[in-house]
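User: Structure please.
Assistant: Input sequence and predicted structure:
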Amino acid sequence: MTEVNEPPRIGGWTRFVTARPRLSLLVALVLTALAVVAGSGVADRLGAGGWEDPNAESTYATKALEREFPASQPNLLLLVDSGTASVDTPAVAAEAKRLAERLAGEKGVTGVGSYWQSGAPTLRAKDGREALIAARITGDETRMGQTLDRIAPSYRGAHGPVEVTVGGPVAVRHEMQTIIQEDLTRAELIALPVTLVLLVMVFGSAIAALLPLGIGIVAILGTNAVLRGLTEFTDVSVFAMNLTTALGLGLAIDYALFIVRRFREELSTGAEPLTAVGTTLRTAGRTVLFSALTVAVSLAAMLLFPQYFLRSFAYAGIAVVLLAAVAALILLPAALVLLGHRVDSLDLRRLFRRGQPNPPDAEGTAWARTATLVMRRAPFFALATAAVLVLLGLPFLNVKFGTADDRQLPSSAESHVVQQHIRDGFPGSPGGGLEVLAEGRATQTQYAAYKERVADLPEVLRVDGPLVKGDAAYFTVLPKGEAVDDPAQRLVGELREVRAPFDTKVTGTAAVLVDSKDAIGEELPWAGAFIVIVTLLLVFLLTGSVLIPIQAVVLNALSLTAMFGAVVWVFQDGHLSGLLRFTSPGSIETTLPVLMFCVAFGLSMDYGVFLLSRIKEEYDATGDHNQAVRHGLQRTGGLITAAAVILATVMVAIGTSRVTNTKMLGLGIALAVLMDAMIVRSLLVPAVMRLTGRATWWAPGPLRRFHERFGLSEGERPAAVIEGERDKVGARR
């Protein structure tokens, strides 16, 4: 820390970002305005799918069937309700046929079929009062949504003796996209004012509180512009916008909190504003940069997976992390130079205080006492907290993976109502069967022999087809159980093993799930290795220790157990579903645990870097391990807790979404963030570091010399301390 009587040391980066602060802020304002324009309408260009592997057998078969046999892949369903009459009465049949003929004439619609045309029993409800008209809307997701918006109003509602409701996969995706946009707007309206109030409580000053919020808004708007640009080249999921808002506010506030807090510390020692900014950038600024890199690494791991749902979160997450860091390291210092001591203006807490204010070190003293208590009883706290975290994670051992379907939507959503009617009232799970694409010339005898072999499989209820077109044909295979339960997934593998004189490809809901699980399982070790190796390297560069990076990875992973256990207990098993207002499908969508791990692990590293950097700074200055741990928690415990509460608030606002996956993402990560800040950083880390003692900082000679040359740390290490530590290491040898 710079002494009062030291001449100011202004580095090159400080000179760059503070040379013309007004110009920097003006340029930022112009760029933000351009980002608003560039990012406008981004939500309308985002997709609501992306869970399937684009390179999988099921994806190939789906596209081929869409092209050759559009009726085999209906994505639009009209549920025709005849009231108290039978769907076979002449008046009902006539009206239904008229609707089907009219639908077949709509632009962008093909493959129209219905119960009244085919007589298929799977298209007629068991009670005989409902039946289906099925069709396919062509085009990409955007065009399908536009077509649905155009035609749905004229079919929805009463038509003579029948009542029609609109459903099917395209309606589910479109309704999900619309609800997410509405919920995101509501979440922002909740999160922004609440966040501002929390920031005022943390800083006291309204001026200081507005700075982190401004950085967050800049990061969000910039990321929306980035996503809008990406939609020109690749598919991007609409769910990624939720992460943009959460991380944009959360990380920008984290970084700004850390920088503003350090700046105010420097001012309190008597430093001039420009000198305080220079010291802040050399210390907290380095930590912010390092933290952004560790978070970006965790999110970048999702680029290894083929599903664009996961890749979209990597695009959005990396963009918002880097923009938040850039804004915090360029715009915030410029603003602090201009504000100077006025950063403490408008202390709103005076309105609620009587008498003398609390001593400025009161909060730090409480955290110092916590650190002392934890380190005095280190074995107890280490074992107890680890045991509790493991216990909370046990429900995840019973996880069941499934696909995202209409049950993601609220129970009142029209497309959910349609699909629920089909599940409850129609035989054979319409839309839940498996399709087998047969490619290559074959005779009717060969098709019949293949059909017989498939029908003999133990999990098969019925085989329909083949429908032949040129050298291609397809069969529909209905499983005995549910569309995506374990027997249906086993049936996918059995179908792929059936001998045939032609090439076969299997698709359908269960096949997509099997292929998605296989794709994730294939890439998961590589993604995990990438996160672990790069995290170990980055934390080593920060600390120069071999043990601390290992501790960081293990403790970070342990901090996520409560999140994964809660996800299964609540969202798979359905506990609290009434309170949280969602419908449990009895499974967890396959990509969600990967996404939640990458995001939560990155945020845990964010807080870990804040704590470790301050511990390292104190250790470099004093060489006293226990004092360094105590000082690090004293200086950052309140800051990390405040940042975690603010980020959790944003995530809970996201978790108010009516879409179950978004609710799960928001509430799950909020829990992970709070557990990490309040349990792992406050109790487990200091306990473990006390147990490892001075060995915490050990590194072999070659690695130590590598770190001295290339490593980064918060603050500048006194040469005398370095030499003293070398002497101690030599003596131990």
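The longest strand covers residues 460-469.
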